[in-house]
């Protein structure tokens, strides 16, 4: 099935986004057609560039050059030196990407890393991150962040909040909604007809029967029981420190974790270079490399493009599965 190309946003041009975009094009070429939304001046010197007027031109162009849908920025960007003057352009690239994928001109959206402080300083960016901004643009009240790699898939129920605020934020409603969105996405986009979800406890030893916290008894276990009664394969809560060794990982398709680092530490430890951020619950496919702007190495040629290559490749597979409307096997 022939699909439109993937839209890749530029991210902060002072970060490693430009160089990993160029490296991803060299690695993927026509096998995974994509185009960059951004200013061609920010790409590494010597990068073959094909300026395009519409996404439909990208598939042919990518055989010999990196297709770029030009978006003018105020000036040349200096690697490693984020400039608030670039904020409007970074935001415009995301908005343009969402517009194109919602129109069907792009098969999926892949986003390069942004620097939230520069966006706030330069354009009053009011969102905690990409995920929340994309939910706003798509007009959906709730999305879920998944980190996926060949070794592991994890979903944090609470995301960008202080650890001290997690117990109050961890409501039965939030947990149930997260589980339902994750379950639906694993069926629709990852080709798993009966997803197996494993719930981590919030507290050490999953609360140890209430001795070290009651969230497992009062919040997590009742939600799991209710969804199991509907036919979902939801197990837990179990102690988080026993969930991520190889034998445990073989027993589930996604680990549902209660807070940000409980989810991200294991996947970044097991498969740092190939982790992909996937936003579940959007009306379109969105992936992103699972790393930041890396200003400290920007422009040095040391950036590893593996996560972006994985993000583009996964976006292609998920878009193909969604287009077919049927399970296609594990992604």
From TrEMBL:
Q: Which reaction does it catalyse?
A: 4-(phosphooxy)-L-threonine + NAD(+) = 3-amino-2-oxopropyl phosphate + CO2 + NADH
UniProt EC number? 1.1.1.262
Give the record's cofactor note, including how many are bound.
Binds 1 divalent metal cation per subunit. Can use ions such as Zn(2+), Mg(2+) or Co(2+).
Record bears the keyword Zinc: yes
Q: Which GO terms describe its cellular component?
A: cytoplasm
User: Which keywords accompany this UniProt record?
Assistant: Cobalt, Cytoplasm, Magnesium, Metal-binding, NAD, NADP, Oxidoreductase, Pyridoxine biosynthesis, Zinc
Q: Which family does it belong to?
A: Belongs to the PdxA family.
Give the matching PANTHER family.
Answer: 4-HYDROXYTHREONINE-4-PHOSPHATE DEHYDROGENASE, D-THREONATE 4-PHOSPHATE DEHYDROGENASE
**Protein's name according to its UniProt entry:** 4-hydroxythreonine-4-phosphate dehydrogenase
User: Where does this protein come from, organism-wise?
Assistant: Pseudoruegeria aquimaris
């Amino acid at each position: 099935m022939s699909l439109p190309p993937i839209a890749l946003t530029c991210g902060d041009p002072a970060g490693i986004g430009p160089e990993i975009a160029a490296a991803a094009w060299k690695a993927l070429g026509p096998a995974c057609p994509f185009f960059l939304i951004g200013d061609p001046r920010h790409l590494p010197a010597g990068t073959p560039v094909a300026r395009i007027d519409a996404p439909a031109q990208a598939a042919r162009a990518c055989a010999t050059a990196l297709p770029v849908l030009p978006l003018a920025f105020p000036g040349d960007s200096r690697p490693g030196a984020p400039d608030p003057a670039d904020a409007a352009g970074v935001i415009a690239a995301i908005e343009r990407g969402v517009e194109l994928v919602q129109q069907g001109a792009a098969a999926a959206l892949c986003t390069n890393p942004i620097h939230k402080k520069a966006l706030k300083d330069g354009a009053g960016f009011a969102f905690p991150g990409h995920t929340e901004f994309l939910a706003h643009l798509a007009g959906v009240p709730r999305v879920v962040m998944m980190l996926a790699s060949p070794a592991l898939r994890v979903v944090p129920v609470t995301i960008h909040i202080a650890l001290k605020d997690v117990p109050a934020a961890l409501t039965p409603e939030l947990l149930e909604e997260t589980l339902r969105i994750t379950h639906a996405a694993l069926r629709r986009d990852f080709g798993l007809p009966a997803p197996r979800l494993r719930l981590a406890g919030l507290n050490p030893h999953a609360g140890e029967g209430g001795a070290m916290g009651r969230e497992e008894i009062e919040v997590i276990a009742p939600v799991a029981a209710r969804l199991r009664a509907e036919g979902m394969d939801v197990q837990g809560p179990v102690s988080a420190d026993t969930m991520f060794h190889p034998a445990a990982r073989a027993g589930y398709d996604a680990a549902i974790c209660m807070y940000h680092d409980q989810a991200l530490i294991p996947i970044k430890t097991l498969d740092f270079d190939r982790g992909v951020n996937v936003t579940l619950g959007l009306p379109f496919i969105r992936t992103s490399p699972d790393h930041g702007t890396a200003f400290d190495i920007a422009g040095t040629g040391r950036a590893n493009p593996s996560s972006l290559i994985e993000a583009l490749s996964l976006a292609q597979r998920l878009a193909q599965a969604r287009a077919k409307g049927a399970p296609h096997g594990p992604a």
